[in-house]
Design goal:
alpha/beta; Rossmann fold; 6 helices; 8 strands; globular
């Protein structure tokens, strides 16, 4: 099995376990609530007559469903993309439960294969997904697609893990991080400055985090610098 296939198998197991064990918005996991930065952005969207939003790596709707509820009285459509069938199935179930199924368009696709149409979106979210792209070439290509996919005054929100380290909890042994794209925060900032040089920077933060993550045969400790980067198209 190729290394990329091993990594994606590990990712699939980890996420499927999470989506099966925890309900959306139930306490005890990162599914408990949406990302606060995302919620804060919603009041900044200028166009209210017809709102188009793209949620890359949407999972079961942690952010997409609160956004749909926020814009329930508006003409809003959210394209929600995830590679996992179980994520999109649960997203559809949750969207029906919360009464926003007419607002959310669930799409099963890898991020690499999903083409972002030019000048379509008022808001694009890439939350904990860039590090899962197949390689750095795909990452750079997708960043350019995001740039071109935003309408004028559109906003993009990125949250990603940089400087990732994984260790076995049992042995404290250093492990190979199970992510396709590994980059430092400095490398990430350089890419963003290159691709989005004409954009307005609304927010940039760096926060150290420690997580425990289920892998195929054990639970590991992941230490990472979480980068939050929010920009607006002039």
């Amino acid at each position: 099995m190729k290394e990329i296939d091993k990594i994606r198998k590990s990712e699939r197991i980890s996420h499927e376990m999470m989506y099966t064990k925890y309900d959306l918005f139930a306490k005890g996991s990162w599914l408990e609530k949406p990302v606060q930065t995302v919620i804060n952005i919603l009041s900044m969207i200028e166009c209210k007559e017809s709102i188009n939003i793209l949620d890359l790596g949407c999972g079961v709707g942690r952010n997409a469903i609160p956004i749909a509820l926020y814009y329930k009285e508006y003409n809003c459509m959210i394209d929600a993309v995830d590679i996992l069938d179980i994520a999109i199935k649960k997203l559809r179930d949750y969207s029906i439960y919360y009464g926003v199924d007419n607002t959310i368009n669930g799409i099963t696709s890898s991020i690499e294969d999903y083409y972002i149409s030019n000048h379509k979106y008022d808001l694009i979210l890439a939350i904990s997904v860039l590090e899962y792209l197949e390689n750095m070439d795909f990452l750079l290509k997708k960043l350019y697609e995001i740039r071109d996919g935003l309408k004028q005054n559109g906003i993009a929100c990125f949250i990603c893990n940089s400087n990732i380290e994984e260790k076995s909890i049992l042995t404290n042994q250093q492990l190979s991080p199970q992510f396709e794209c590994l980059f430092s925060d400095e490398e990430f900032y350089e890419m963003m400055a290159k691709v989005f040089e004409d954009f307005e920077l609304l927010k940039r933060t760096l926060k150290k985090q420690v997580y425990t993550i289920p892998r195929e045969n054990e639970v590991v400790k992941m230490e990472t610098d979480v980068v939050t980067y929010v920009i607006k198209k002039r």
